[in-house]
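User: Let's play a game. I give you a shape written as C-alpha cells, and you guess the letters that built it. Ready? Here's round one.
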C-alpha cells in the first residue's frame, strides 16, 4: 500500500523538492512529457503519467539503469531520475550497487504498479481492445521464437550448430523473414497504441532494432537489451501485466 505522500517528515532534494497537493493516482499532479521519438498526439484522457511510465518500465524490463529506462520510455534521463527519487521515497523502487547495479522494483512497487496499470486500463475502457490485440500477439509469438532460433542456430549437415554469421546470404534470408514478420507485428502494435498510446513506444523500438540489424548491427536481432527479441519479450510481459494475467 502506498504511503501518504503529504505526511510529515518527507524530505526531497533537487527536482523532487516540489510539494504536490494531488495524490499519485491523479495524473494532473505533473504535466505529462511526450517520450522522444514518438510523434503521435496522445489523447489527453489516455496519456500515461510519467511516474507510472517509469514504474511500469521497471515492471516489464526488470532492473535497469537510467540509460536503459530512457531507451524503454523515451523520457529524458533527468525526468526519469526525478520520478525515481519520488518512487524511492514511497518505497516502490530501490537502487542497488555492485554487480547487479541499477534500479529495481520492490514488492510494494509491484503491487502499486498492478493497481495503477489496471486503473489506467479501466478508465480508458480499453480492456476489450487490448485483449483482442493480445490474442493476435499470441498467434505471432511462436513465429517470432522460430525466427530467433533460425538466427542463432543453423542446420549444417543435419546438425544444429551456432550461427557464426559467417554466411551473409543466410543472415539476409532470415532478416527478410523478420521484415515480413514485422509488417504483421506493426498491425498489432497499431491496435494496442490506439487503445493505450503508451504501447506506441514498442513499435518505435521494434522498428529501430530491425533497421539497425539491417544496417549491420547484428546484435539488434537477439543479442542486446535493445534487440528485437528483447523488446518483443518486454511487450509480452507488458500485455500480461496490463491484463492481470500470468504466463
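Assistant: Ready! My guess for every position:
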Amino acid at each position: 500500500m502506498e504511503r501518504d505522500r503529504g505526511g510529515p517528515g518527507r524530505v526531497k532534494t533537487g527536482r523532487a523538492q516540489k510539494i504536490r497537493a494531488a495524490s499519485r493516482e491523479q495524473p494532473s499532479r505533473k504535466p505529462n512529457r511526450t517520450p522522444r521519438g514518438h510523434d503521435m498526439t496522445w489523447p489527453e484522457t489516455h496519456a500515461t503519467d510519467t511516474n507510472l511510465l517509469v514504474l511500469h518500465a521497471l515492471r516489464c524490463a526488470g532492473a535497469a539503469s537510467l540509460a536503459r529506462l530512457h531507451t524503454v520510455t523515451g523520457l529524458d534521463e533527468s525526468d526519469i531520475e526525478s520520478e525515481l527519487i519520488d518512487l524511492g521515497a514511497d518505497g516502490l523502487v530501490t537502487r542497488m550497487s555492485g554487480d547487479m547495479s541499477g534500479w529495481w522494483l520492490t514488492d510494494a512497487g509491484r503491487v502499486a504498479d498492478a493497481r495503477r496499470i489496471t486503473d489506467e486500463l479501466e478508465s480508458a475502457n480499453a480492456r476489450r481492445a487490448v485483449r483482442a490485440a493480445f490474442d493476435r500477439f499470441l498467434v505471432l509469438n511462436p513465429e517470432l521464437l522460430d525466427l530467433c532460433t533460425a538466427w542463432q542456430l543453423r542446420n549444417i549437415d543435419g546438425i544444429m550448430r551456432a550461427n557464426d554469421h559467417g554466411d551473409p546470404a543466410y543472415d539476409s534470408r532470415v532478416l527478410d523473414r523478420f521484415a515480413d514478420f514485422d509488417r504483421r507485428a506493426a498491425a498489432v502494435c497499431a491496435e494496442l497504441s490506439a487503445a493505450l498510446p503508451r504501447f506506441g513506444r514498442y513499435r518505435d523500438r521494434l522498428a529501430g532494432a530491425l533497421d539497425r540489424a539491417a544496417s549491420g548491427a547484428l546484435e539488434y536481432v537477439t543479442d542486446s537489451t535493445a534487440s528485437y527479441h528483447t523488446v518483443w519479450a518486454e511487450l509480452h510481459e507488458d500485455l500480461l501485466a496490463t491484463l492481470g494475467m500470468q504466463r
